[in-house]
Here is the input.
Amino acid sequence: MSYVGETLSNLLHQTAFFNLTWGNYVMILVAFIFLFLAIKKGFEPLLLVPIAFGMLLVNIYPDIIASPEETSNGVGGLLYYFYSLDEWSILPSLIFMGVGAMTDFGPLIANPISFLLGAAAQFGIFGAYFLAILLGFNDKAAAAVSIIGGADGPTSIFLAGKLGQTGLMGPIAVAAYSYMALVPIIQPPIMKLFTSKKERAIKMENLRPVSKLEKILFPIVVTSVVCIILPTTAPLVGMLMLGNLFRESGVVRQLSETASNAMMYIVVILLGTSVGATTSAEAFLNITTLKIVFLGLVAFMFGTAAGTLFGKLLCKLTGGKINPLIGSAGVSAVPMAARVSQKVGAEEDPTNFLLMHAMGPNVAGVIGTAVAAGVFMAIFGI
Here is the structure.
């Protein structure tokens, strides 16, 4: 009987109930909320479902992301190896390739002024950088946190790794992806605050047709110019443009389809679950994480406001030919931010179609965020 009792006791103590802290229960609740938002409300489920499930797993079974040094048999947890691909900048770069293969750069080529709107939206990044310094972060940590303002998860992970801020990578990545998913909630009030009903109802002229030659030359020229000026951006900008060249060249259909479908979704699974797995209660429930989440929100709001206000300025300069709403799409978050511009504009006039116009600043924002990351790396001599 003693053997049976001891066996049952061992089995009972192997359950998670005896190891979970109140913090673990809090994070499990957060994971449930994320799953609800993703599945019930449809807030970017491709991002939130794997992130939330990784969050759930690590707070029930912490060893799933344990390093080899932390285990008795010298073999790390499953998600430890996924996360290593984040730290090595492999998954963020592959995500950029997939985005490039999925995205039509035609609206940006047809309306080069979109580059200015994309650049204006990066104001949130540099504004948050100085605010982070004031809140006690060192310069590299402040840079890694502030890039959340670009609403670009892969770039946030990439820069945190390059600047040696792997300890902050989890909260930074979760904040970045969470704000990307919450674009439809965060952006509209800011966009409406800084624009009038008349401005939101502005109809823009149809974009000019873009030739195939222009679309082929664009990724080649952008890669050459940007990477010569900021070589450290090559992993992101280079992969983004390579994916787009697959799409536009028309001679590697198999590569384009693989990059934009199978590879993209595999990478999202690996990246999402590993990012979610960094949110153990011990790592996530602290003042530093709260500061990161706050700074990320401030950066994102500032970026949205700056893009919208610059769009408002261009509206005045062009005699009302540019709808200021498209400036908010410059925060990146392709294509969610462009869809929000379309939605807010359609609320004023259901016949107004801003989506393709907003895609220009949206794509410019992706490039702009990568350039901002390159600027930080250049400043710190990385």
Summary: Residues 44 and 330 are 19 Å apart (CA to CA). The chain is about 70% helix and 0% strand.
